[in-house]
Design goal:
The complex is a heterodimer of chains A (about 775) and B (about 350). With about 775 residues, chain A is an alpha+beta fold. Chain A is built from 20 helices and 39 strands. In chain A, strand 30 and strand 31 form a beta hairpin. The model of chain B has no long low-confidence stretch (mean pLDDT about 90).
Chain lengths: ~775, ~350
């Protein structure tokens, strides 16, 4: 929202003060001011009132005219002008020789063979409107030669307030409310707003008007006739233009002006079309044409202003085309109302049509303002068009009152909340200046919140703290640390695990951490031939490509691997992120935090890559929990999993996740020549694994013994079980030193290390153990290799 | 006999010349000085001689034995020196000007800035909390004093799920749970609540270089008996100075957020120009960095904490924005895009 310092100056005398400093202060104490400040008119100089004394056609040109312009000098000056609207006797904006218009300095110059000593200007050329259809037509009775800047508010400082920063301040959506802030900051009094006394019209008939719906809080109306002025005064048009609105005609301008001044949107109906005002909703939806000519769909929730049963306006949003003031309108009905803010906002969203009016209504406007706004409107109207005639008494239905807000607090509360010392008189002065009623006895305060702050903005004591402190100035705060008891701070176990996982994966295994999205991207999945499995859906995704939450990070990560096949011949990526696996019995999402790792290699065999990933899992768990893992072959249930090489990863019998080879149909689509393997671990389950304590075992001082045994076996598992079953205290370590395949079949060589802490072992006792293992394995059908 | 000695000496010298390695030399030593060696044989053969001749010859043979032994020892050293030289010559002079092979992993930039923030806050006694991504309307809005019809709850801003839950649109969604988790310690032991909670948030909006539907924030709260606005300013200034590793100036402006009162927009002096004014701060000298404020009494009350007894502050830092500022990432989509060419650059940064 753009604001004019001239306009603010109507309500508070800021003379002698640094305006820029005040605007800066406003930004720090009230609402955010955009960086760019516009110094309107500062680049205009030497433009005066000039009267066209004579108009002659230009002999060489059909468009140009030769003028004599009285610019207040002894003799009229010769001017060549191309504007179509020149006429004898017309007063206009005249830039004399030497005048400055932005970057242009006016100098005498020939135009089609005739000298032009100055320039008649359009409003656009002097920056007060975007009208460039002709030169400015000054109808005010002002002496020729008068500097235009001395009679019109061309010179102004315009600043813009970020609308987002005043969403909670309905009072700041007009200049008067902003002026109150400036008055408080400057320590100067706020002038009352000048209005027309409407009591003389009390005897006139009332307008037939009824609120039939609680969504209308208050509706005030007045009927006026005989308005003859069509063009708004220059200053009014300049202000509207500077504040971002275009002048249309006097009545429309006046309603806009009032909205920008008081924040109260107003609407004028043609009295012929609106004789019986009813405010209501309709049971059945229908279409309605607004004054911008658009047909809009109105549903049963949208509040309408009606003429009896005929809708004439969408309440608080926009008027209808049929009831709009037209050229032959002689009598108008003025609306000044407030509506339920939530209803207005919802209607705005439904209609996807936000207007200057609805933007203000949805902020919870003060219903106390409606009548003052009409009285102010009439004052401005009568000032310009004294012949206007009020033809009804003020008709006002006030259906909903916001409860008055009174708050009590004491100085100790202020001290505690602020942490600094603000004296009682400052508190009283600040609140009073902002319009609060303040009763101060000793250190106790009783505050009455003004109606324009009591619609939702100020409701609790803490709100009062804000009023006091923002005016006091946060830059003026003495800042200090807090004094609190000290206790140890314990890190959350899962967070610690997560950090360790990341460090190991990055630093030990040189993997790259990536982030992805919590939902499946249909297109990406489709490209890899991965099915998006049914899961919890987003109810309202705007992007049709995302709808279903992911059940696993693996497919999202495979999509990212696909993206990176050109990165290098071998790489590994990981992510710690969330997945959702359906709903629990309470209908809530089953959310899990997973670690997902994918390795990609064109340099390594699939088998070696798979083992590398397996070893990585083993190292992670061994490091974090000092535990070993086991693996169990599982059935592939997802389209990206390899049917043969997919294993559950178990620790202490709990499944932590799975490790697998990518299904060749998906793998081929990623890269025909690469081996791709993945694993996914549940971070919470990994955290829950009870860590094995470190128990120191002194190495034996006596020589140990190593025995190599080669078994004919496809899998190591039975050998491992047999070794574990031997449960021998002297068997310290078993290590696979090789696997072979020849005509005899697959074989595995295992090296067993024996030692005793107190003596040298005998061959016999070692043999007893190895024989036991061989015998046990023989029963399982696993033979020693000859 | 003398002739024999002379012949043997001559033969020895001739053979020694041909010896080129330690093994041959050892074989030669055995051939001359071993139990069955030719010098030993000469010594043995002397048994047939007697008296003077034996003594004389004995001396000569012993001299021969010593000479042979010495000659072999010398040759051995020569050979060892040669062998060492050969070993040294066999090794090339390595060219360290060749570029190193740096097989390094990388962290996601969010992890790096998050850890940096966590370190700062942990050093001031804050706990680091984790929270769900799928939350309820109560957690994300109602418990934060965001009224039923507040624009923040509009469908177009928040990702709602078909079961009525939603993807959290702000880390503040954890506030209520954190108050409830620590309220007992606060009330019974006087332990102040000091917590940060980094997390991933979601907004239902179209993505472009400046907008993402998935981004990271870090929220922080501190609640105790007498936490004041003055404390808030102190902590924000101190923490941000630590995070940015320089003295940061902060500026507070009123800002409206339903879960704080008063609420502030916190600006810091521009990191590029230091406050002089430059294009990146739009010549204002300030950067809007994070919303903060005194926790709204209703929010405390809903968290089981009596706002008449306790006060607190809360703040929210945009980790995604922080990472972009710190590393000069211009396009926010790079962060979730998964391109290794981008992401591999963020190695350890502590």
């Amino acid at each position: 929202m753009f604001l004019s310092m001239n306009w603010i100056g109507d309500f508070v005398d800021l003379s002698g003060l640094d305006k820029n400093a005040l605007i800066h202060q406003f930004s720090l104490s009230t609402a955010e001011v955009e960086n760019e400040i516009f110094y309107k008119g500062s680049d205009i100089d030497g433009v005066v009132v000039g009267q066209i004394v004579s108009v002659q056609p230009h002999p060489e040109s059909k468009k140009l005219h030769l003028l004599k312009v009285d610019a207040g000098g002894a003799e009229p000056v010769d001017v060549v002008c191309g504007a179509p609207n020149v006429r004898e006797g017309m007063k206009t904006a005249f830039a004399k020789v030497g005048a400055r218009l932005g970057d242009i300095t006016i100098a005498p110059r020939p135009l089609a063979g005739h000298m032009s000593n100055g320039m008649c200007c359009s409003e656009k050329e002097i920056g007060i409107s975007d009208d460039h259809s002709g030169i400015m037509d000054i109808t005010d009775d002002v002496p020729n030669g008068t500097d235009l800047k001395s009679i019109y508010g061309i010179e102004d400082i315009i600043f813009e307030v970020d609308n987002k920063s005043i969403t909670n301040r309905p009072d700041l959506w007009g200049h008067y409310g902003v002026a109150r802030e400036f008055a408080t900051l400057a320590g100067r009094p706020l002038k009352p707003i000048e209005t027309l006394d409407l009591t003389p019209y009390d005897g006139l008939p009332k307008i037939d008007m009824k609120i039939l719906d609680p969504l209308c809080q208050r509706y005030s109306a007045l009927q006026v006739e005989n308005i003859t002025t069509t063009v708004s005064p220059v200053d009014m048009r300049i202000r509207l233009y500077y504040c971002g609105m275009r002048a249309i005609n006097f009545l429309a301008d006046l309603t806009n002006y009032l909205m920008l001044e008081m924040g109260q949107p107003m609407h004028a109906f043609d009295s012929r079309k609106v004789t019986k005002i009813r405010i209501r909703r309709f049971d059945e939806p229908f279409t309605f044409q607004t004054l911008d000519g658009v047909e809009r769909h109105i549903d049963e929730n949208t509040l309408m202003i009606c003429n009896d049963d005929t809708p004439v306006a969408i309440a608080g949003i926009m008027g209808g085309l049929d009831s709009e003031i037209v050229d032959d309108t002689t009598s108008l009905t003025l609306e000044s109302a407030t509506f339920d803010p939530v209803s207005i906002r919802k209607s705005t969203v439904r209609l996807s049509h936000r207007t200057d009016a609805s933007m203000r209504y949805e902020k919870s406007l003060d219903p106390e303002m409606t009548v003052t706004a009409i009285a102010r409107f009439m004052k401005l109207l009568m000032d310009t068009d004294p012949g206007a005639k009020v033809t009804s008494s003020l008709t006002d239905e006030y259906a909903f009152h916001y409860p008055p807000v009174e708050l009590s607090f004491d100085k100790a509360y202020v001290d505690r909340y602020t942490g600094i010392e603000i004296d009682n008189s400052t508190i009283v002065k600040t609140l009073t200046a902002l319009g609060f009623g303040v009763e101060n006895t000793g250190d106790s305060f009783k505050v009455k919140v003004p109606s324009w702050r009591a619609t939702k903005d100020v409701t609790i004591k803490a709100d009062i703290i804000e009023e006091i402190t923002r005016i006091y100035g946060y830059d003026n705060f003495d800042v200090h640390t807090a004094v609190s008891p000290l206790y140890p701070v314990r890190a959350a176990a899962e967070k610690t695990v997560e950090d360790k996982l990341k460090d190991m994966l990055v630093k030990r295994f040189s993997l790259h951490e990536l982030h992805s999205y919590v939902w499946a991207y249909y297109d990406d999945y489709k490209r890899l031939g991965i099915e998006v499995e049914p899961n919890v859906d987003l109810a309202n995704a705007s992007n049709p490509n995302i709808k279903t939450l992911r059940r696993s990070i693996v497919p999202t990560q495979l999509c990212q691997v696909k993206l990176n096949t050109g990165y290098g011949p071998a790489f590994g990526v990981f992510e710690i992120g969330r997945v959702v696996n359906g709903l629990d019995e309470d209908g809530l999402c089953v959310e899990q935090k997973k670690l997902c790792v994918t390795l990609f290699s064109k340099l390594e065999s699939l088998e070696s890559l798979y083992f590398r990933l397996r070893d990585m899992a083993a190292v992670l768990v061994a490091d974090i929990r000092h535990k070993s893992l086991s693996y169990e072959k599982i059935e592939a249930t997802h389209s990206y999993q390899h049917p043969k090489n997919l294993n559950a990863i178990l620790c202490d019998g709990v499944c932590l996740g799975e490790i697998g080879v990518v299904h060749p149909t998906v793998g081929q689509k990623i890269d025909k020549k690469a081996a791709i393997v993945f694993m996914e671990l549940d971070v919470a389950k990994l955290t829950q694994v009870e860590p094995e304590p470190i128990v120191y075992e002194e190495p034996s001082k006596y020589p140990g013994m190593e025995v190599d045994m080669t078994f004919l076996a496809d899998r190591y598992e039975p050998i491992e079980k047999a070794i574990a079953a031997a449960n021998s205290p002297i068997l310290k370590k078993a290590r696979v030193t090789g696997t072979y395949a020849d005509e005899a079949g697959k074989s595995i060589t295992v090296r067993l290390t024996f030692s005793h802490n107190e003596r040298t072992l005998t061959r016999e006792e070692v043999m007893a153990v190895t024989d036991g293992i061989v015998d046990a394995l023989a029963k399982e059908g696993v033979a020693l290799k000859a | 006999m003398n002739q024999e000695i002379a012949a043997l000496t001559e033969k020895f010298e001739a053979e020694l010349k041909k010896i080129e390695n330690a093994l041959d030399l050892e074989n030669m030593r055995v051939a001359y000085l071993g139990k069955k060696g030719s010098v030993t044989a000469l010594l043995k053969s002397m048994g047939t001689l007697s008296g003077e001749a034996r003594r004389e010859l004995g001396q000569e043979v012993n001299e021969l034995k010593d000479r042979v032994a010495e000659r072999i020892a010398v040759r051995k050293e020569e050979l060892q020196a040669l062998e060492l030289k050969r070993q040294i010559d066999a090794v090339d002079e390595f060219d360290l000007s060749l570029p190193p092979v740096l097989d390094r992993g990388s962290y996601h930039p969010i992890t790096l800035v998050q850890r940096q923030c966590e370190r700062v806050f942990k050093s001031m006694g804050f706990t680091v909390e984790d929270y769900k991504e799928v939350v309820s309307d109560y957690e994300c809005f109602e418990s934060l004093n965001i009224p039923k019809f507040h624009p923040a709850r509009d469908m177009q801003d928040t990702y709602y799920l078909e079961n009525g839950q939603l993807l959290k649109s702000q880390t503040s969604a954890a506030q209520n749970a954190i108050y409830r988790k620590y309220r007992k310690a606060l009330i019974e032991d006087g332990t102040p609540i000091k917590a940060i909670f980094p997390g991933r948030c979601f907004r239902n909006e179209a993505t472009d270089a400046c907008h993402e539907n998935t981004f990271f924030q870090m929220e922080g709260v501190m609640v105790d008996r007498n936490i004041s606005i003055s404390n808030l300013i102190f902590f924000m200034k101190t923490m941000l100075s630590e995070v940015f590793e320089r003295d940061i100036k902060v500026r507070l402006r009123p800002g409206f957020f339903p879960f704080v009162e008063p609420g502030f927009e916190l600006d810091i002096n521009c990191l590029i120009c230091g406050g002089e004014g430059c294009p990146s701060c739009k010549h204002s000298g300030w950067l809007e960095l994070c919303p903060c404020g005194m926790i709204h009494p209703e929010v405390l009350r809903m968290g089981g904490i009596d706002p008449e007894e306790y006060t607190g502050f809360a703040f929210g830092l945009g980790l995604t924005r922080l990472a972009m500022m710190k590393y000069g990432i211009a396009d926010i989509r790079d962060l979730n895009g998964g391109s290794l060419a981008s992401m591999c650059q963020f190695t350890d940064d502590e």
